[in-house]
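Try it yourself: sequence plus zinc ion, in.
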Amino acid sequence: MRADGAGMDTPPDELRAATLPVALISHAACRLHQMAPGHPEQPARVSVIAEELRARGLHDFLAHYEAPRATDEQLARVHPAGYIELIRSRAPAAGLEQLDPDTAMCPDTLEAALRAAGSNVLAVDLVMSGRARRAFCNVRPPGHHAERARAMGFCFFNNVAVGAAHALERHGLERVAILDFDVHLGNGTEDVFRDDGRVLLCSLYQYPLYPDMDPPSVPGHIVNCPLPAGSGSEALRAVVSEQWLPALEAFAPQMIFVSAGFDAHAADPLAGLRLATEDYGWVTDAACAVADRHAGGRVVSTLEGGYDLSALAASAAAHVERLMAGATD
Ligand SMILES: [Zn+2]
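Structure, out:
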């Protein structure tokens, strides 16, 4: 318990009843950010997930929140002040401002990026205060390629890293885990937390593939699991069961973050792993089981990639459905 009172209203884990809602956090600005016409990281990604949650009857059982803007103080736990200022200064009044070959700002991008990062801060506050059991942030731009001082790979601020840093610094947690099943290595998240032993980072990714990095694992801290193109459900389940879960059990995280990219799906046009929609339910169950054992059920998940709209909608809805499942399911 921190002296300044952060976490004072956090209920004991045993009182975190399965009846607490799952929060769904988004913002209209996330549907306005647009790079080039036809770019796969497109506004419809957020819309199709929302529509699928409605179609499955899940919408009404979620607690809906608008994402606030992340403050400079919250961003500065992850990004240098000069980088935050650079992103602000590059925001165009019209047209597109290209930050790297894959990553451009339009006039709505800064607002969307601030809301996407802020969604994670709100998610952590909701889950820590007992107002929500878990949370899913249906936001874009994504974040896991954003390094401390480098926008890349469709990412500007590292949304999940901002959330994890908020949990550590504001709520005084000592151990958080980040699970990243996006098909691309989350090089930005690793850049942020490489020297921070309070974070266990478990990643699986296709390699070779963008960003063409395959950094070594660090026992008890970074669990990197590269997979060759063509790997499918069995490979995913082996990696999670044999590498992620033992590390998670030993680490006993107090909160679990998920970088929820759905571009390892077999239908995705940008990559070559062969996951099925039901794999996302399976890996979500595995994450929730660890959270229920060690973290009072606390899971904060955030959209990263996923570029086939129908596979994205079905996979993300399967993920949210399992986040909503009861602790004893
Ligand atoms: Zn990706």
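One thing you can check immediately is this: Confidence is low (pLDDT under 50) at residues 1-8, 10-17.
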